[in-house]
Amino acid sequence: MPTQPWMDKSLSPDARAELLIAELTLDEMISLVHGPMPALVNPPPADAAMGAGYIPGVERLGIPPLNETDASLGIANPRKIRPGDGATGLPSGLALASTWDPELAYAAGAMVGSEARDKGFNVLLGGGANLAREPRCGRNFEYLGEDPLLTGVLAGEAIRGAQSNDIVCTLKHFALNDQETCRHVVDARIDEGALRESDLLAFQIAIERGDPGSVMCAYNRINGEWAGENDFLLNQVLKGDWAYPGWVMSDWGAVHTTAKAALAGLDQESGEQLDKQVYFGELLKEAVQQGEAPFERLANMVHRILRSLIAHGVFDHPAERRETDYQANAKVAQSAAEAGIVLLKNDGVLPLSGMRKVALIGAHADVGVLSGGGSSQVIAPGEQGLEIPVTMGPSSAFSRITYHPSAPLAALRGLLGNVAVTYDAGTDPQTAAEAARDADVAIVFADQWCTEAEDLPTLSLPGDQDALIAAVAATGVKTVVVLETGTPVLTPWLDDVAALLQAWYPGVRGGEAIARVLTGEVNPSGRLPISFPRSTDDLVRPQIPGMIFGPPVEGKTIPTSFPGVQQHKGRFSVEHPEGADVGYRWFARAGKPTAFPFGFGLSYSRFGYSDLTVEGGDTVTVSFDVTNTGDRAGTDTPQVYATVAGGPRLIGWSRVALQPGETRRVTVTADPRLLASYDVSLPGWGIAAGKVEVAVGTSAETMTLRGEARLAARTLKP
Ligand code: BGC
Q: Using one digit for the tens of pLDDT, what is the confidence trace for 398-442?
């Protein structure tokens, strides 16, 4: 008999976990279900890798400590708790989602997972699969847009990639954490069927494809119960209907009770110093001893943790610190940025050619590219760039406005050779206009900083950037706008500019990626994963619930109390009348066209679709030809939508790289849940027999081919 029989790889992860549990004392079991933020422990645990979370191991049994790091967009290092430790910063989640490319999402996840191992981490906290219901949400840049299929597929692939490194990846924030304002008090209310068809479907698809070892709860309540003690979400849906075998960890400071949370399905308390008490330490031990929480539940909590660690290779291939090849990893970030940049307008000025002088303006384009704030903040290797302190708002405690050191100016100069490329900071519209006046093209960079813990008061570009763009365009010089924003913005100057490029937060090689798209080294292929509304009046909630505005400061309206916790003691509810109709589905239902629709994006080529066939039955299968009718090689992303319950739903897409004149036939088969309605009385998914309309389009608002098929009646389990 080996001394550690649970190390026998021929046994199942469940059997190995049970062997370990038989050896654990009650105290050891308790020690595995709660843990601190190591940076707030003095002195920090000797074996902590100094990320956001730490759970001590049990050395005598070979159970490794859990070293947890935020990792939505790379290995995070907010507040530089690991001084000097840089990492490869990916483009934002919305940029990654704009690629619509599952293989790139896998590669990005695999790269982040490998850096985690290099730094001694074995649990990644991210990414997120929350749907962007609120375009002003401060964390949209960490998420993957507004569609459950696109979000689920890409989140799942990123997780699969990350976990290919023998580590655990966490899917977050379960669920309906769709606004940062009041995130610690808000009760998000929604109809069950609508929730199943939207946010929960995104998580469900991500879990099916990615098999994450853990799931993190959100801060908010859902239909009256905190996410971390929500029996419906955790026990019934996640662990019941979906048979999820992994563990559920809390968000940092999101635990409110002991026995209630444990019984509702929470398995681990994270970042415990942020909770009012350590609920899963001595208090849980007492609850178990007094029978308020059965011992079997504690054993199951520990089982789920150990099982995931074993199933995902943490026991058999422990993380060991290694040197990181940042040059190689930056190429992954650059590929994602290049594929995620979306060309929103082009009157022919792009790609740049035949120029004598180009004037670059604004957004610190001489230094780098913007990134988003909060727990996901990555610090680039080498740590130059630019950091601007944040002086007000809840994020000021942990965020700095950070520009990764990848300057569009240097990158463009490198690519444009003998062309004169000038730079003006853009702080004064008139000076900038002067700087543009004798150029052939002016390229105005505009940005919008977003951060965890705060939502945006408006969708307008902050500061005087709209006036800056308008002043430069008014010179008559052809003006290209490059947006580095965390979420959609309003573009009041659109008719006056020659081209518009949405570069999102493009990551550690963002400057190079932008330059290569501007000059045509890269043919843009990104498609929007989120709608750009014409006005905040068109949104489900024209005002963000709970955001409180004070008197104007220096003429500007700013929220005085972003999280609104003081103002909203006790219950504070946000209704979700849009139900499952998030984003483009809401705009279609409300009959409100957008400024730029979901799925939209231009190319330097043109593409045409023809010869549609649609087959029905248990689901729909759609085939059609895609032809590159332009004169450049390029990649197109035709999208297939079905009309279900009176509105459009994305049921699939294909990314097709084509040479000029080349045609390829593509086939898309729908996940039948996308053609169904969720019926709580079944319970499950129901498809009624009948006709379904499908269309192939270049966006949710532009359909090129239309067809229909007959669906057979069927039901599917939840
Ligand atoms: C965030 C999580 C993050 C955690 C640890 C929380 O504030 O909501 O996404 O993983 O902090 O840093």
A: 899 999 999 999 999 999 999 999 999 999 999 999 999 999 999
The pLDDT of 152-170, averaged and rounded, is 98
Q: Nearest residue CA, atom 5 of ligand 1? A: 52
Residues 617 and 501 in one domain: no
- Helix/strand/coil (H, E, C) string of 604-667? CCCEEEEEEEEECECCCEEEEEEEECCCCCEEECCEEEEEECCEEEEEEECCEEECCCCEEEEE
* Residue 160 maps to a domain: no
Residue 265's nearest CA partner among 257, 277, 275, 273 is: 257
For residue 374, tell me if it sits in a domain: yes
Residue 552 pLDDT exceeds 70:
no
- Strand-pairing partners, residue 614, are 622
Bigger pLDDT: 528 vs 559: 528
Contact 189, 574 (CB under 8 A): yes
Q: In what order do the strands lie in the sheet with 186-189?
A: 225-226, 221-222, 186-189, 572-575
Domain boundary among 457, 489, 519: 519
Mutation test of ligand 1: which of 252, 451, 452 has the most ligand atoms closer than 8 Å to its C-beta?
A: 252
Using an 8 Å Cβ cutoff, are 116 and 162 in contact?
yes
Same domain? 443 vs 334? yes
pTM score, whole prediction: 0.97
Q: Which domain holds residue 627?
A: 607-716
Confirm or reject: Cβ of 125 under 6 Å from ligand 1. Answer: yes
Residue 251 is among the residues annotated as catalytic for this protein: yes
Q: Note whether residue 309 is domain-resident.
A: no
Domain with residue 493: its CATH number is: 3.40.50.1700
Are residues 612 and 473 both part of a single domain? no
